[in-house]
């Protein structure tokens, strides 16, 4: 029982530390096109717990590719390969994607 409590306290402190580091990062905004999407489901701590990782790869205007994690499943589904727009990221996490359709912006 004591080992479980110690484990959860350790994990909690680790997650708190990661969250604090995440908050210190500044946002980066750039224009890019979606070139690939990847969705992977895996089990976590037993077969009943499943987690899904959603990643999108953008191609910046300068030719560099950027891989970002999308936390919102609905936002991930709305984004399609070939969509271009303004991307805002914080570290490797997607903050916002504003799709540009010719001269009209959509979200």
* DSSP strand content: over 45%
Detail the poorly predicted runs.
103-107
Q: Order of strands in the sheet with the most strands? A: 3-2-1-4-5-6
> Quick one: overall form?
elongated
End-to-end gap: 48 Å
Order of helix and strand elements from N to C terminus: HEEEHEEE
CATH class: Mainly Beta
The largest sheet, given as strand count, sense and whether it forms a barrel, is:
6 strands, antiparallel
Do you know the CATH topology? OB fold (Dihydrolipoamide Acetyltransferase, E2P)
Quick overview of this protein structure:
Helices cover 27% and strands 49% of the residues. By secondary structure, it is an alpha+beta fold. It has a six-stranded antiparallel sheet, with no helix packed on it.
Question: What does the model show?
Answer:
The protein is of the alpha+beta class. The protein has one domain: OB fold (Dihydrolipoamide Acetyltransferase, E2P) (Beta Barrel). The protein has helices at 2-24, 73-78; strands at 27-43, 50-60, 65-69, 84-90, 93-101, 104-106. Strands 3-2-1-4-5-6 form a 6-stranded antiparallel beta sheet, with no helix packed on it. The chain is elongated and about 55 Å long.
């Amino acid at each position: 029982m004591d080992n479980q409590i110690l484990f959860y306290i350790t994990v909690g402190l680790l997650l708190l530390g990661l969250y604090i580091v995440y908050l210190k990062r500044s946002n980066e905004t750039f224009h890019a096109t979606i070139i690939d999407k990847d969705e992977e489901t895996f089990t976590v701590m037993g077969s009943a717990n499943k987690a899904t990782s959603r990643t999108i790869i953008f191609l910046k205007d300068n030719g560099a590719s950027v891989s970002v994690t999308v936390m919102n499943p609905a936002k991930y589904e709305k984004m399609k390969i070939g969509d271009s727009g303004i991307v805002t990221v914080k570290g490797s996490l997607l903050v916002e994607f504003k799709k540009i359709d010719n001269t009209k912006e959509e979200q």
